[in-house]
Amino acid sequence: MSNILVSVELTADAFAPFGDVIEARGSPTSVINGGRCGRYHDLANLDFHESGRAGINIFQSQPIALPFQLRLVERHPLGSQAFVPISGGDYLIVVAEDEAGVPVRLKAFHGERNQGVNYRRGIWHGVLMPIEKAALFTVVDWIGDRQNLEEFHFKEPITITAQTS
Amino acid sequence: MSNILVSVELTADAFAPFGDVIEARGSPTSVINGGRCGRYHDLANLDFHESGRAGINIFQSQPIALPFQLRLVERHPLGSQAFVPISGGDYLIVVAEDEAGVPVRLKAFHGERNQGVNYRRGIWHGVLMPIEKAALFTVVDWIGDRQNLEEFHFKEPITITAQTS
Fold this sequence. Notes:
The structure is a homodimer. The first copy, chain A, is mainly beta.
């Protein structure tokens, strides 16, 4: 595996194997409040193990600088996990396929300020990586008493860089 | 009932009869990602009727100007409804108590840019009222096939103004 990963544009199609892009793109699903508000409806496949429930949290993350040395990914066996920015700027998203408990074929996406993502249950992903500015995110995930975190530490860090035109 | 309502600071205590304030206030509940990220955990009492499920939406709302003439409030019998800003600025929040199906004793709160709210199931509330700037909000609410909207139109509009120091 190459140890350099270049981030690409975050689109619903490209991200589909890993989850949903949560964004107000195109025309709203419906218009409410007397025409004053557009609703983009049901943008994420929420999937929570019955031993817990859905919850809302805020994550407050320090920024990273590019290129970034990624040493760790994680996954949550009991539920999907959605992140939508509150403050900050663009951010990096790293996901991977799984082969017998090992994250493989990593991909990096460049999330824009008004884009969120929802990781499907069990998908390997990097931790929050706001670029240059600290950021707050709304996080919707599984809440319960069981262990819901699995981490994988890479032997060699993976360098993530931004796409250059 | 007075037809003028003055917005007050949005605090967890003042808002408690109507729902939760979703914000990163004080120290985080836990620190994750090797010290890089604070988690403010489980900030909203989500409550969804079993005929549906939790979902994530984005609302894109036009702004209001102050003073604002409020003509309508609404409530959702089948679930709580949470709003957390993605973009925009401060916004107005109006809630009311219920007396035999009629919203009474209205209150207006001034929500800051990084504050969200979660309306308890069945609480009367005004529609989205971003002040001066259009805004996007993450919305977590009940999704299903049943009718989940009840509206109340006031005979006379209620004027909402900002608190002056």
